[in-house]
Structures are given as C-alpha cells and as structure tokens.
Amino acid sequence: MPEVTLKVFRGNNQKGEFKTYKVPIEDGMVILDAIHYIQANFDNEIAVRWNCKAAKCGSCSAEVNGKPSLMCKTRLDRFEKDEIITIQPLKTFPVIKDLVTDVSWNYEVNKHITPLTSTDESEWVIYQEDIDRVQEFRKCIECFLCQDVCHVLRDHDQHAKFSGPRFLVRMAGLEMHPKDTASRTKYLKDEGGIGYCNITKCCTEVCPEEIHITDNAIIPLKERVVDDFYDPIARFIKSIFKS
Fold first, then answer.
1. What domain range includes position 57?
2. Model's pTM, two decimal places?
C-alpha cells in the first residue's frame, strides 16, 4: 500500500517541533483522515479540532504546506508522489496545543459590530436582487482562513487595529442589507481599520466557500468610507440632504 509522509507540528505557544509520520493512503483520503490515522495508530494525544468533516463547520483549519486550508477538504491525491506534507496550526492565532489554536479574539471583534438595525415595523418586502447581493456573505463558515492569510494580521500583528476580512464580510452583509438603517463607516475607518487592507485578494483565494471577499465586500466598504469621510463633494451633498 502506498504511503504519504506527514510532518505535523507538536507543541504549544511556547515551544514545539515537527514530528514525522508515515500514513498508508487509500482512495479519497484527505488530510484529516491522515491525522485521524496518526491518532489511532501512533499518537492518540495529538490535538486537532474538527466536527463535520464536510467543509461546513470550519473547525479543521490548519496550514498545509504553508497554505491556510481545511484539512477535511484537502485531498492527499493532489500532492506529488513522495512529496512531504507539512501540517501546522494557523499562524495568526495563539497555539493551544498541536493543531488547535485559540481563535477567541475573533468573537471579541464580532461583539463591537452594530447588528442589523431597522425602523421598518411593517412586513418586509425585499427585491430578489437585493437578497442575492447579501446572500453570498451569509455563506461564511468562520473557518478564519481569511484571517490567517491576511498580511495585516499575519505579518504585522495589527489585531488591535484591524478587524480582518471575515468581519469586513459580515459588515458588508449588514451595510448592504436593504432594510438596515445603521451606518458602520466610522467603525470601519477607525476600530475596523479598513484602510490597512491593500487589496491583495489573498483572503479570496483561500475562502472554501468561494466568497468574493475583496471585490464584493471590501472594495464597496472602502468606497463607502471614502464617500463619508474623504470625498468633499459627497460630503457636501449629504450635508444638504441632512439639513
């Protein structure tokens, strides 16, 4: 039976090392299957977070050969024969143990976002095109792969100043909802730090739900911030209507 060689990170946020395991390959196996084989046959203490194994819960996020990926969606047969596959935890978040990271920072960010706000108490009648516009953003499974690959968080550690792509997606879904009346542009400019994003599209590339994060969420939000705070003509027109 053919085998695959995996180098898996073992350790915590203070220290760790990569250990090598050889796993027999069967048709249709994914990275998560290989980790489960290691648990069952070599080391039952290896820590990994997973739930559905259907690429819908977002739990089994890790870095496979340096790329943020879902382990349950990454097939072993996509790698070259004799290629060594390196599995490590998400770099952007603190390691708890082995492949499990502490992503609780994301939920703290979420608490600061103004929820859906509407003064319309009548029955909501919404055009299908408006629903289609925001439906894409609802597909997010919060795997946080986009957060991990984002250079603002990954390389510059700007967690205190930048909310990250996942929450820009959430705010886009709220801002573009046809019945929402709140404005989140001040938060986006200040606490959300949308100005830090320089449109590399790396977040879009790793999204397992194929959400067009950059084009459909981040760029429109940037435009709204510019209109509200930097475009003198737009500000003048808004001031007339407000008065």
1. 3-101
2. 0.91
